[in-house]
């Protein structure tokens, strides 16, 4: 579709994230309380929490319909939209917004999977949404023509599929839960909103950290620049998604341990999660940054090699900022969300101000937008988040810094090896890129095994992987 059209797709998706701050935040509180009720098998309380959340969400959806309708009808005055794309943009936003509203309901029914730590089922929900979306786009682009309206239609179909699957699993996992308006309770709603209020502040800060850049680039540099920026940003999104998978595995373990009052397990799981996330992200980002110019050339064309520096700015800080993901669940589990919300909101505003200053005052271009985000989010997650998590757990303030520093050192080492390899090995196709990246990965992975992993870490990995390998071997033998 070209960079100008492509730049409108993340705008539609990001806008739904901004207007969903209330619902996403309340969902965080809902998940906490329902998980604790289910783990304690308190079905009377669980039904009240579930139905209060469900009918409150339906009310929130109804309130948002007029706002979304207005934005769809007046989208050209809100965003920079090329004239030839106006008609398709209406459809893109309309279908995307409808899919978003459906996904809000899906999130309520998905709490059952979270409460039982059935993240395999939750990931099937996510996978089905993504696969259906991609398949729909490919079919429509092939049969008809590449168009923004088909991207919006794909978002809607993906959301519908995920909703059906979420409801099905909700019915299977928690048959004790029933939909009944009689179980709606205002005191429970007040409790959800009370905790969700500070989660809202935190969510707004999160969006100012990670999602304001698209708006800033669109407003200052136009739709085509937004498309180029968004294309490079996909590597950041990719790493965040992969890290989110592991973090989501750890989240229910932390919450369930807290529900059973096993604080020592909470601390142990959190340390393990931070260490493995930091090491994993450091390894991935080090390789991508080291080969950044060649990756962009092969993927988007040689003219995109000039954005290698932009890619490095977007990725180099993730080892810290994704390494701390398990610590966010500690705040929610212990219902300590006020101070993190204030800090996240404050640093989110700082990110926005820095982005404007770097663009308008220093003339850094959209490199300045990425740099502002890297500085603000790292300042918050690199200093405040580990210290606060240690504080509420009553443990040493340096507990979570050691695994983060190990991940940072690994990133620098991996980047250096990748950069040297990239400088001396001619890479002209995806085969050579794959071979070069794989060699660096194996070298660094072996070094990590012997240098950074303790015997406890190795035993944990072995006890997790070996049984699965044996199961696969028996299946095919």
From TrEMBL:
Keyword terms of this UniProt record: Cell membrane, Membrane, Transmembrane, Transmembrane helix
Topology within the bilayer: Multi-pass membrane protein
Transmembrane segments: 6-30, 50-70, 90-115, 127-144, 150-171, 192-217, 237-256, 276-300, 306-328, 340-358, 404-424, 430-453
Compartments, as annotated in UniProt: Cell membrane
Superkingdom of origin: Bacteria
PANTHER family named in the record: PSMA PROTEIN, PST FAMILY PREDICTED COLANIC ACID TRANSPORTER
Protein known as: Membrane protein EpsK
Organism of this sequence: Echinicola rosea
């Amino acid at each position: 579709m070209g960079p100008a059209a492509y730049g409108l797709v993340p705008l539609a998706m990001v806008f739904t994230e901004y207007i969903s701050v209330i619902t996403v935040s309340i969902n965080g509180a809902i998940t906490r309380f329902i998980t604790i009720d289910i783990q304690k098998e308190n079905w009377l309380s669980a039904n009240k929490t579930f139905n209060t959340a469900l009918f409150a969400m339906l009310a929130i959806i109804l309130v948002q319909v007029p706002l979304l309708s207005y934005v769809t009808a007046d989208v050209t005055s809100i965003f920079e939209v090329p004239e030839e794309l106006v008609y398709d943009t209406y459809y893109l936003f309309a279908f995307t917004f409808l899919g978003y509203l459906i996904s809000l309901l899906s999130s309520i029914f998905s709490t059952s999977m979270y409460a039982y730590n059935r993240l395999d089922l939750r990931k099937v929900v996510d996978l089905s949404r993504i696969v259906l979306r991609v398949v729909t786009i490919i079919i429509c682009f092939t049969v008809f023509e590449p168009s923004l309206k088909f991207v919006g239609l794909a978002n809607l179909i993906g959301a519908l599929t995920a909703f059906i699957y979420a409801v099905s699993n909700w019915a299977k996992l928690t048959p004790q839960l029933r939909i009944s308006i009689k179980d709606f309770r205002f005191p429970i709603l007040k409790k959800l909103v009370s905790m969700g209020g500070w989660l809202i502040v935190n969510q707004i800060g999160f969006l100012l950290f990670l999602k304001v850049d698209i708006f800033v680039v669109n407003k200052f540099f136009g739709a085509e620049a937004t498309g180029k920026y968004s294309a490079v940003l996909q590597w950041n999104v990719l790493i965040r998604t992969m890290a989110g998978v592991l973090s989501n595995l750890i989240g229910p373990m932390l919450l369930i341990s807290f529900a059973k009052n096993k604080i020592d397990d909470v601390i142990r799981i959190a340390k393990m999660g931070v260490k493995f996330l930091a090491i994993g992200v450091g390894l991935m980002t080090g390789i991508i940054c080291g080969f950044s110019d060649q990756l962009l050339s092969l993927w988007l064309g040689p003219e995109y090699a000039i954005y290698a520096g932009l890619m490095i700015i977007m990725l180099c800080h993730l080892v810290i900022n994704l390494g701390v993901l398990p610590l966010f669940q500690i705040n929610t589990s212990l219902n300590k969300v006020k101070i993190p919300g204030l800090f996240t909101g404050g640093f989110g505003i700082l990110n926005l101000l820095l982005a404007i200053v770097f663009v308008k005052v220093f003339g850094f271009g959209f490199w300045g937008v990425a740099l502002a985000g890297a500085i603000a989010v790292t300042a918050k997650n690199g200093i405040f988040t580990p210290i606060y998590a240690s504080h509420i757990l009553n443990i040493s303030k340096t507990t979570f810094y050691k695994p983060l520093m190990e991940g940072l050192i690994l990133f620098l080492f991996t980047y250096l090896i990748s950069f040297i390899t990239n400088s001396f090995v001619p890479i002209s196709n995806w085969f050579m890129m794959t071979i070069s990246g794989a060699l660096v990965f194996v070298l660094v992975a072996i070094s990590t095994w012997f240098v950074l992993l303790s015997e406890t870490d190795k035993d944990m990995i072995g006890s997790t992987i070996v049984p699965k390998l044996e199961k696969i071997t028996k299946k095919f033998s």
